[in-house]
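To the team - coenzyme A complex, inputs and output below.
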Amino acid sequence: MTRNPIAAFDHRTGFKLGAPVGFKDFMWEALKDPAAGINMIQTAENLAKKYGIAREQVDEFASQSFAKAVAAQQAGFHAGEIAPVVTEKFELEGYKPRGIKLQGKITEVAQDTHARISPLEVLARLRAVYEGGVQTGGNSAALVDAAAAAIVASGGYVKNWAKGQTRKPLARVVAAAAVGVPPEIMGIGPAPAIRLLLARCGLTLDQVGRFEINEAQGAQTLAVGRELGLDMTKLNVNGGAIALGHPLAATGVRLTITLAREMRRAGVRYGISSACVGGGQGIALLLENPSAV
Ligand SMILES: CC(C)(COP(=O)(O)OP(=O)(O)OC[C@H]1O[C@@H](n2cnc3c(N)ncnc32)[C@H](O)[C@@H]1OP(=O)(O)O)[C@@H](O)C(=O)NCCC(=O)NCCS
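Output:
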């Protein structure tokens, strides 16, 4: 996310005297929906209005996300799913070495860097991105760097592989659902996606013990909670993207691995990971904990 380029497209054939010299910030471009003509923060502001969500409620939710993330870090929960990034070199004979060089004197990053205790009164002092709006830099998903990976295999393969293995699969992927929603309220996507997923599996909301719903923006997650009538004590119990960050493209795997590990920790059978998608979609995945069947 922090390496997103700022690019110029129109200058190969030179500049026209007096014409604007255009550069585009790809981070900002990625957060804008050209169809609806608004950015992601504005989609959350639309949800805040639609569901009557106040700034204080969003800050309260954010403060809890930070507190849960810090508690989970201190308890060592997150360390169980983080591969530290270190300054290192990869060498292969005949090729120039490649590698990772962290900034300044830092030689290792082993935990999420945005999570910190954030009392309500501190968050309340932050300036809203849009005047009169509810979203700030403190109650929206942080822009952080990450990559994530998981091994997904068919049931048949796992069965064969499992013979003679001591390690068991972390979770079973039961079903998935993806839906479309109006782009100007893209953040509500998880609500209809979760409804469709439950209908497909013949389950009810209260049979699901844990939810990891991406906190793209605080008002967005609160709107999803209200729309579903969700028990918020089952949601993002180890903190969410407001505290941990939302690195586009890594988040889906991160949510799902956190969910699978938390389901094991809590001993629950079913869990759902879900995210809204800029442009107007919602996606949800049902996991089953093999140890709780
Ligand atoms: C909201 C957003 C525009 C803010 O961007 P930004 O202005 O670059 O954010 P910053 O990190 O500089 O935060 C703004 C301020 O809040 C402060 N802040 C953020 N979190 C804080 C916390 N927990 N406690 C105290 N201060 C905090 C920062 O220090 C900064 O203060 P400063 O202005 O004095 O430097 C950006 O984070 C965003 O768009 N997030 C959502 C991304 C998204 O929508 N993703 C989903 C796509 S579907």
